Amino acid sequence: QVQLTDSGGGSVQAGGSLRLSCDASGGLIGTWAISWFRQAPGKEREFVAAITYSRNTYYTDSAKDRFTISKDNDKNTVYLQMSRLKPEDTAVYFCAAGTPIISQVRLPNFYMIWGQGTQVAVSS
User: Fold this and answer.
1) Inter-residue contact 86 to 79 (CB < 8 Å)
2) 5-24: string of b/e by CB count within 10 Å (b at 16+)?
3) CA distance 114 to 124
């Protein structure tokens, strides 16, 4: 069974850091694009960051100066290092796998496999 397992969320104070992990079964990391999306109650699911099989990275504007996406192909794991967290970062974070082209990496409908979500809560 091919699946993604995301983890690492928690409750932190503003300005703190968290590292989210996305573990992929079946050796997906080396051949698929992996992205992080987030969704807060009542809001649309929004793109956060992506890393392609060739290690190109993409970020939403609010994340580009604070978050870093990386991967370890040998461990089949993608990481999202989140620093200088803000209350507006509070959401459930999901990792997702797919085969988007560059123009599609920010669109959730181009990802076929999703993790279960991990909660990030940032308090002030």
Assistant:
1) no
2) ebebbeebeeeeebebbbbb
3) 30
**46-55 tens-digit pLDDT:** 999 999 988 9
Separation of alpha carbons 76 and 34, rounded Å: 11
| Contact call for residues 67 and 49 (beta carbons, < 8 A) | yes
DSSP helix/strand/coil, 110: helix
Two tokens at 13? 């104070």
**Total number of residues shown for the chain:** 124
**Mean pLDDT calculated for residue range 61-69:** 96
Quickly count: other Cβ atoms within 10 Å of residue 51's Cβ: 23
The answer on pLDDT for 58 being more than 80 is: yes
Encoded tokens for 62: 């609010």
Question: Percentages helix, strand, coil for the chain, rounded to the nearest 5?
Answer: 10, 50, 40
Count other Cβ atoms within 10 Å, centred on residue 73: 15
